[in-house]
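Hi V.,

Quick status before I head out on leave. The structure for the redesign project is tokenized and pasted below; the design run finished overnight.
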């Protein structure tokens, strides 16, 4: 499951504290807590489908923490949840009729069992579709939407989806062998196109020569 219920905040530090720690050359950079990129109080959230053991009252009011390691929501009652950024498959600013918000789609695929297969996996893998959950973040202060979105985008960029990287590595069609093409250099009676002239100059190491 993408979302993990928590009753205490993960460790984090401010960007200024991070700069000071890095400047002092710590014994281990791995021990440095994650950086808090944005904190927004007076936030409500909604989850569809709802999350077990996380009530509507818990979701009604709390604080959002956009930390480099996790996105965290902690309710005023001290119950909250956190999720890792690769689980956020989409995030956007929504200005729907029910009010401005941050809309997120979450990959809430089943957890794995010891044999490495997802729980409840279908016999036919073509029918095996990852579960999706929707998260809506509604700050009381509508002007906070842009900072929240920018912080989310920054943190998400620090955690690229490893599955997407693997798919790119396996896609042989994404790369073209330059040996499959012939380079046209032109003749005295033929004129190269603009692209051809640039290509010809590059190959002849005359890239600064006038045409």
């Amino acid at each position: 499951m993408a979302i993990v219920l928590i009753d205490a905040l993960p460790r984090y530090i401010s960007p200024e504290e991070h700069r000071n720690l890095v400047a002092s050359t710590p014994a281990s950079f791995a021990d440095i807590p994650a950086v808090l990129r944005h904190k927004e109080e007076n936030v409500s959230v909604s989850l569809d489908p709802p999350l077990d053991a996380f009530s509507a009252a818990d979701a009604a009011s709390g604080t959002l923490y956009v930390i480099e390691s996790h996105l965290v929501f902690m309710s005023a009652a001290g119950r909250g949840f956190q999720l890792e950024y690769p689980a956020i498959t989409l995030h956007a600013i929504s200005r729907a009729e029910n009010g401005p918000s941050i809309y997120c789609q979450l990959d809430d695929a089943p957890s794995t069992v010891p044999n490495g297969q997802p729980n409840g996996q279908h016999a036919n893998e073509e029918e095996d579709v990852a579960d999706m959950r929707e998260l809506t973040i509604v700050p009381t202060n509508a002007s906070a939407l842009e900072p929240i979105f920018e912080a989310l985008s920054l943190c998400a960029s620090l955690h690229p989806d490893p599955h997407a990287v693997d798919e790119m590595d396996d896609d042989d069609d994404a790369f073209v062998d330059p040996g499959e093409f012939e380079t046209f250099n032109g003749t005295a009676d033929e004129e190269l196109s603009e692209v051809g002239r640039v290509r010809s100059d590059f190959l002849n190491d005359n890239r600064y020569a006038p045409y």
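Above is the designed sequence. The first strand starts at residue 3 and ends at 6.

G. will cover questions while I'm gone.

Best,
W.
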